[in-house]
Amino acid sequence: MVKFHYFVFSTKSCKIMSHLTLEQRYVIEAYLKIKKSKDFIAESLNVHRSTVYRELKRNHTKTGKYSAKLAHEYASERKDRFVINRKFDENCKIFVEKHLREYWSPEQIVGYCKVSNIPTVSTERIYQHIRADKEKGGDLYKFTRHRLKHRRRPVGKHYPIANRVSIEERPKVVDNKERLGDWEMDTIIGSHQQGAILTLTERLTNFIIIKKLPKGKDAKHLAEILINHLVSYKEFVHTITTDNGAEFAEHLKISEKLQSPVYFAHPYCSWEKGSIEHANKLIRQFIPKDADLTNYKQSQLTEIQHLINKRPRKKLNYKSPKRIFYNFINRNYGSVAFET
Asked: How far is the C-alpha of 281 from the C-alpha of 199, rounded, in Å?
């Protein structure tokens, strides 16, 4: 079966009517939860509006709701049911394995076959073959760019938090990064859920704070640790932005004690708290992803914090976050000229 892509031209961009990925379906689900329009979703995904309308019509649940995971399963089942030439026979395997060993990705193999009218299987079927080959001791996975590691990542869950305040209500001044006191926070979880740490960063200066969480993602314990540490900077805490993790359920207590509102980013929209995402990447230089965080003492985390905060940053005109942050704290504004 030959498939066609239809192009709809506008003065702004070229929209492609095509199959949606699982990641795009999670974006649709997230935007539907915050009541975004279908046209807004289509524009965000850079697809034609009919793609979104067709997706919601075909892949909703029996109750009329939309689940990205179920929608992807429905679409995959439909594709397997109606598309011919899907048999992964010996000739197909030889072709796929040949190009995998030439460092072609499964997506590139399928895409090449489509434009060349070569019968093939789906991208996911090729990944299944690679995983099965690995379990048998094969080496096909070594030719994939991520060696299948990215295939294991669980999709983040959205936990309903009572009385949460959306980032849409956050003052616009926070986006400008022109004042000290707008913070972002997150948690880093150890390998196999072993241990957890709380990370904070101040948006203007990129000053980082790292605190161990002896009780893991316990919301009450996290709130106590956060309050105990930031209360000394209470004057310089105007807002706190975080994600929808259940560990932040005690946000009302945090707001009350610090007299500062806590705002929640939209589900699956990590770019809305980009400062803390970047801070976590810096911390990962010292704490690898396969680390058991229960083995780290607070003194070690504090040393990592000091090392990062002492490094010069281009954004700060090659001054350190520590220097800029404490210049503000001590009201020594004379030496705080830097790029924003």
From this structure: 11
